[in-house]
Automatic annotation (TrEMBL):
NCBIfam families per the UniProt record, alphabetical: HelD_BACSU
Name the UniProt record assigns to this protein: AAA family ATPase
PANTHER family, alphabetized: DNA HELICASE IV, UVRD / RECB / PCRA DNA HELICASE FAMILY MEMBER
GO biological process terms held by the UniProt record: recombinational repair
Organism listed in the record: Pontibacillus yanchengensis
Gene Ontology terms: cellular component: cytosol
Binding site for ATP: 216-223
A Pfam family of this chain: UvrD-helicase
């Protein structure tokens, strides 16, 4: 590097950028006098070849910037690595080529508006990710700019010191990527702005006003890219969109913790990240205990005997046809709101019943049902207030006329007196009555409308036989109806619902009551999307009323196949209007050797799924160890120690189910007395621990070394087990091993035997 002709220039540039950053930081912290003095010292201390007035000017301008605490904190962090790339770009309209340094956030010279660092999310930075060397174009604010890129350079900067830089073009392989992939896994996601690949960049920058569905192979960067798209979205639409309006849905809390650490760096930490289960709980405030899909899956794997019914009912409740059933139910509920009696006060009609019905059916049809009821109440209140005045006037006039008649018409003084006092009493009584009736007219009338809460409605659908029969109608067979009814009623007796019922609750909440504005996300990001049921998508789409979804998933990892999506078709054709559909085929996590074993499983799955293409990186072949020989545990310990001494940091032992993991833990804990953790859904992964976890919990995570262990449970040749194996086999970065009685216990007999070692 030191011999490179640009070495000094690069060194100067980095020194300058850091000095500028220091100056900006100091400007926020120091008083103006001290600041000037410091800047003077900095300029004197730096012996720049190119030490120009411009440089001094820039330092002087830096104190004009006003930064938030957060921005300042970010700037301090960024000083360690102010930028990671540079482009030399000549825009057609400009007289000469310009140099742009690209980093995680932008930094501008306040006075000249010249970028000192260009944000990776800015339109021009797209040229670095997408454009080849030579002629390129980019779009900004609807306009296309053409130009020429003559240089793309990548930097390795550590702790503010320039370690290396290299130029890239189409022929050179991406060294920075290779370097980044060969590193070890931490228990957190990496931020990858400097090595985003072209196909990934396309996902990040795809039209932000359209929904996007991404089918991506295991390890292709779906989670990472989805988060970078969030960051890009918030950056590009920062003037009209707040991070709080963003909802990120992940499969479990463990995954959220894992993901969260990458968020602050990307500036998306204010987005709400949660699970679907927790989101529905928050929005609907339902009182039930939820049996999660993970529990159902465990029941299936541990054979609790009732799994067939559970799966059948779950699949039904998650299916598109269940929306029809719920819609029928909503129609039944709506009809109970068709109130068409007149609202009266005494003998007076205040509001025509037909008008009241029309308000419900037509005028306020755009509102949720109970919001319509509230609107009607408000309209009736104001009508009553208005009409009461008229009634009072009419009554007053009527009695005053009669009083006049009595006063001037009745000659007999006694008779007249009696009549007048009678009329005065009557008038007072009538007016009092009107007053009283007007006060309660609306509340009495409103009692004609139903008043139930969400959980009452949910229970009623199953508990009221007539309603149930009516809503399921002919769409289900008798056996299906019986199973659905019996299963749900048994659940309800235990105050429990299935995870699949949450979609019904959210759907009904939206139609009956609406969603509180605090929870109304405008943009939704769904990871591991293949595991959501159609009804879960429908419920989110209906309740949030937005098209702005980023949906990423991998059908090959659909271990909840009884309820999850069989394909992306239904989302593409029915739920969203012309979404973008993109695929990510390259996989960055795993070595070629591991991926070629995992890839073979894809051939045995029902969906025709393209194989993942690993980025060229070799490692050791996966290894099978038999547990039939005594002392296999010691062999496992030795392997662990050897890998650890070679620099592998994170290790996982993965079992098929929770029960199996408990067995693995009991078995191995004596060999690793201080550094093994049996991971539960609500636990945090401890650092420096070997993690034992069931496959469903390992989704989305990665470890340097993964061992699949089978003590009691083996894998069979069926869809579910193959998908489970595929998920587990695609978790390691560097090494994969199997510990079981026979290699066939992991379906390795279906894999070409040269691909793994025994
Ligand atoms: N462009 C890239 N540069 C460097 N590393 C990358 C890149 N893309 C992805 N990676 C790395 O590849 C690994 C897998 O990424 P990620 O977990 O986002 O993939 P995924 O598609 O969500 O995987 P899975 O579906 O298997 O859970 C991570 O370690 C990530 O940092």
């Amino acid at each position: 590097m030191k011999n490179h002709p640009d070495y000094q220039e690069e060194l100067d540039r980095l020194t300058f950028t850091k000095a500028y950053m220091d100056s900006v930081i100091a400007a926020q912290e120091t008083d103006q006098e001290t600041l000037k003095q410091r800047q003077q010292e900095t300029v004197e201390a730096l012996d720049f070849k190119d030490s120009s007035l411009k440089y001094q000017d820039m330092l002087a301008h830096s104190n004009f910037m006003k930064m938030s605490k957060e921005q300042l904190e970010n700037l301090r962090k960024l000083r360690k690595k102010p930028y990671f790339a540079r482009i030399n770009y000549h825009r057609k309209e400009k007289p000469e080529e310009e140099i742009f340094y690209i980093g995680k956030v932008s930094l501008f010279d306040r006075e000249t508006q010249q970028p000192i660092i260009l944000d990776w999310r800015s339109p021009l930075a797209n040229v670095y990710y997408e454009g080849r060397l030579g002629d390129v174009s980019y779009e900004a604010h609807g306009d296309t700019y053409e130009g020429n890129v003559s240089l793309k350079r990548q930097y390795t900067i550590e702790d503010g010191e320039l370690q290396d830089f290299r130029d890239i073009d189409i022929t050179t392989k991406d060294d920075l990527l290779q370097e980044s992939l060969s590193q070890n896994a931490d228990h957190r996601l990496n931020e990858i702005v400097s090595t985003i690949q072209e196909e990934q960049n396309r996902v990040i920058r795809a039209d932000l006003r359209k929904p996007i569905i991404v089918q991506g192979a295991a390890g292709s960067g779906k989670t990472t890219i989805a988060l970078h798209r969030v960051s890009y979205f918030l950056y590009t639409l920062k003037d009209i969109f707040h991070p709080e309006e963003m909802l990120i849905l992940a499969p479990n809390r463990l995954f959220i913790d894992y993901m969260k650490e990458v968020l602050p760096e990307l500036g998306v930490d204010k987005a709400r990240s949660t699970t679907y289960i927790d989101f529905v709980k928050l929005v609907t405030n339902h009182p039930f205990h939820v049996r999660t899909q993970h529990e159902t899956l465990m029941n299936v794997l541990e054979n609790d005997g009732e799994e067939d019914t559970k799966l059948e009912v779950a699949s039904l409740k998650g299916s598109a046809s269940f929306q029809t059933i719920l819609n029928q139910y909503v129609n039944v509920i709506k009809k109970e709101f068709f109130v068409d009696e007149d609202l009266t006060i005494g003998d007076f009609r205040v509001v025509n019943g037909k008008k009241i019905k029309r308000m419900f059916v037509d005028d306020y049809a755009y509102l949720p049902i109970y919001k319509r009821k509230e609107k009607i109440r408000q309209v009736l209140m104001s009508d009553v207030r208005r009409k009461k005045k008229v009634i009072v006037e009419k009554l007053t006039k009527k009695y005053d006329d009669e009083l006049d008649k009595a006063l001037y018409g009745i000659k007999d003084a006694d008779k007249r007196k009696r009549r007048v006092s009678f009329l005065l009493d009557k008038k007072e009584e009538k007016l009092r009555e009107v007053e009283k009736e007007a006060k309660k007219a609306v509340s009495t009338y409103m009692k004609k409308f139903p008043n139930y809460n969400l959980s009452q409605y949910f229970k009623r659908m199953y508990k009221d036989e007539a309603i149930f029969e009516k809503v399921v109608d002919s769409s289900l067979t008798k056996t299906q109806k019986d199973k659905l009814l019996h299963h749900t009623i048994t659940n309800l007796k235990r105050k429990t619902i299935d995870a699949e019922d949450l979609a019904s609750l959210l759907y009904l909440q939206a139609i009956l009551y609406g969603i509180e504005s605090d929870f109304k996300a405008k943009k939704v990001v769904m990871d591991e999307a293949q595991d959501y049921s159609v009804m879960e998508f429908v419920s989110l789409r209906r309740s949030l009323n937005t098209e702005l979804f980023t949906i990423v998933g991998d059908l090959a990892q659909g271990i909840y196949h009884y309820r999850g999506l069989p394909s992306w078709d239904i989302l593409q054709k029915k739920l969203f209007t012309s979404p973008n559909y993109l695929t990510l085929q390259k996989t960055y996590r795993t070595t070629i050797d591991i991926m070629s074993v995992a890839n073979e499983l894809l051939d045995h799955m029902t969906e025709p799924l393209p194989k993942a293409e690993p980025v060229v990186r070799h490692g050791e072949k996966p290894v099978f160890f038999s547990t039939k020989q005594k002392g296999w545990e010691m062999q496992l310990v030795e392997r662990y120690q050897s890998l650890h001494s070679k620099g592998m940091n994170t290790f996982a032992f993965i079992g098929k189910s929770k029960q199996e993991c408990q067995l693995i833990y009991d078995h191995l804990q004596p060999f690793f007395p201080n550094n093994i953790q049996l991971l539960g859904e609500e636990d945090e992964m401890e650092s420096d621990q070997i993690i034992i976890l069931p496959i469903y919990l390992s989704k989305g995570l990665e470890f340097d070394c993964v061992s699949l262990v089978s003590i009691d449970e083996v894998y069979h040749y069926n869809e579910l087990d193959m998908k489970l194996l595929y998920v587990a086999m695609t978790r390691p970065l560097h090494c994969l091993s199997f510990y079981g009685e026979h290699s066939s216990d992991f379906l390795l007999d279906y894999i070409e035997d040269t691909k793994y070692m025994k």
